[in-house]
Design brief:
heterodimer; A: 201 residues; 8 helices; 2 strands; globular; B: 192 residues
C-alpha cells in the first residue's frame, strides 16, 4: 500500500513518458549524462522539499490563494538549490544555466503540490515526491544515455568513462535540438508498442 | 546601444524559443492540434511575453540590483508574472469580451509556461536595455507563434496520414518537431 505511493511515480505514472509533464528541461539538459544527473538531483530536492512543506501547512493555506502560496514555497526551494549549486558545483551550474531557475515553472512540481501534497499526509507526500523524482530521473538519464552514446560514441560521467568509444563516426545531430525531439518521440513510440502488444494478448 | 534588428532576428529564427531553446513545450504540443487554437495561444503569448519583459526589467534594475538582492530574482519574477497574467485576464474580461472569447482559456495556461519566465531570465542574463528587453520579448513571442502555427499545420495534415499504430498522436508529433527543428537549424549559420 505504502510502497505503491513510491513505485507509481517510477513506472505506472512516470512523469515524463505518461504524464508528459516538465518536458522543457528534459529535452534541453539531456545532451550529456552528467548534466541529466545534476538536473535530476535538483528536481529531487525541490520536489521532495516542496511536497513535504506544502503537506505540513495544507490546513493553514487558504484555498483561494493556494497557487501563489505553492509557487512561493517552490521558488524558495529553487533559490536554495541555485545558490548551493553556484557555491559547490559552479561548473555544473554554468552548464545547466537558465534551466535551473526554470524548475520553478516545471509543471511536475506544481502539479504534484496541487494534486497530491495539498490533500494527503506528510509521509505519503514524501513518498510521492521521492517516487516521482526517481521516475523523472530515470526518464531524463535514459534519454541522455541514448543521446550521449549516439552523439559522442561513448558515455562519460564527470570525466570517468563508463562505456568506451564504440564508433568512430558518431552523429553530431543527436546533441542538437532535432536529436532531442527524435529520441523522445521514438522512446514514446516504443512504450506505446509495448502497451499495444500487452493489450492485444 | 545594441542592435534591435539583431535581437529580433535572433529571437525569432536563430534561437527560436521552442525549437532551439526548448521553452514552452507543454503548450507547443498541447495546443497545436488545431490552427485556430494555435492562433489564439500565439496572440496571448505575444502579449504576455512583451509585457512581462517590460515589467521585469525595471523591477530587476531599480529594485533588485539597487538593494543587492539579485538572488531574490526567481521568487520575484514568478510572482510578478503570475499576478500580471491574472490582471490581464481580468482586464480583458471586463473591457474586451470578444477578445476574451478568443484568448480566455489560454491565459491561465501561460502562468506555468516556461517561455515567459525564460524570457525574463534571459533578458537579465544578456544584459539588454529596456528597449532591447521589450523587443526581445516581443520577437520571442513571434517566434513561439511561428513554430506553433507551423506545427499545427503539420498536425492537421497528419490527421489524414496513415501513421503506424504505435506512432499515433504524440510520438509522430515529436518526430515532426525534430524535422522542423532540423529546418530551423539552417538559421544558426546566419552571421549577424
Amino acid at each position: 500500500m505504502k510502497l505503491d505511493e513510491l513505485t507509481k511515480g517510477v513506472f505506472k505514472q512516470n512523469p515524463i513518458f505518461y504524464l508528459m509533464l516538465g518536458l522543457c528541461p528534459v529535452l534541453a539538459v539531456s545532451t550529456r549524462v552528467d548534466n541529466a544527473l545534476g538536473m535530476g538531483l535538483c528536481v529531487f530536492f525541490v520536489l521532495v522539499g516542496s511536497n513535504v512543506i506544502i503537506s505540513i501547512f495544507k490546513h493553514r493555506i487558504p484555498s483561494q490563494v493556494r497557487i501563489p502560496c505553492f509557487i512561493v514555497v517552490i521558488a524558495s526551494f529553487v533559490t536554495i538549490v541555485d545558490l548551493l549549486m553556484h557555491g559547490y558545483a559552479p561548473e555544473l551550474h554554468e552548464r545547466l544555466g537558465i534551466y535551473l531557475p526554470l524548475i520553478v515553472v516545471n509543471c511536475i512540481i506544481l502539479g504534484r503540490a496541487e494534486a497530491f501534497a495539498s490533500r494527503k499526509s506528510v509521509f505519503h507526500s514524501f513518498l510521492d515526491g521521492v517516487g516521482m523524482s526517481i521516475g523523472f530521473m530515470l526518464g531524463i538519464v535514459g534519454i541522455a544515455i541514448c543521446r550521449e552514446a549516439l552523439s559522442t560514441g561513448k558515455i562519460a560521467i564527470f570525466d570517468c568513462t563508463i562505456v568506451p568509444t564504440f564508433t568512430q563516426s558518431p552523429s553530431v545531430m543527436m546533441t542538437l535540438p532535432p536529436g532531442a525531439f527524435l529520441t523522445i518521440g521514438i522512446i514514446m513510440a516504443l512504450i506505446n508498442y509495448k502497451n499495444i502488444r500487452k493489450e492485444g494478448r | 546601444m545594441e542592435n534591435l534588428l539583431v535581437i529580433a532576428v535572433g529571437a525569432i529564427f536563430v534561437n527560436n524559443f521552442v525549437l532551439s531553446r526548448f521553452l514552452g513545450l507543454c503548450p507547443f504540443f498541447g495546443v497545436s492540434r488545431k490552427t485556430s487554437g494555435a492562433i489564439g495561444m500565439g496572440l496571448a503569448v505575444i502579449i504576455v511575453m512583451t509585457c512581462a519583459s517590460a515589467i521585469t526589467w525595471p523591477i530587476y534594475t531599480y529594485l533588485l540590483s539597487t538593494f543587492n538582492i539579485e538572488f531574490m530574482e526567481i521568487v520575484t519574477f514568478i510572482l510578478v508574472i503570475a499576478t500580471f497574467v491574472q490582471l490581464v485576464e481580468m482586464v480583458i474580461r471586463k473591457y474586451q469580451p470578444d477578445l476574451y472569447g478568443v484568448l480566455g482559456i489560454y491565459l491561465p495556461l501561460i502562468t506555468t509556461n516556461c517561455a515567459v519566465m525564460g524570457v525574463a531570465l534571459l533578458n537579465v542574463e544578456e544584459g539588454y536595455s529596456f528597449i532591447g528587453s521589450v523587443v526581445d520579448g516581443f520577437s520571442a513571442g513571434i517566434g513561439f507563434t511561428l513554430a506553433l502555427l507551423l506545427m499545427s499545420g503539420i498536425r492537421e495534415r497528419l490527421e489524414f496520414a496513415n501513421v503506424p499504430k504505435s506512432f499515433q498522436d504524440l510520438p509522430i508529433a515529436f518526430v515532426s518537431a525534430a524535422l522542423l527543428a532540423l529546418a530551423f537549424m539552417a538559421f544558426s549559420g546566419m552571421r549577424l
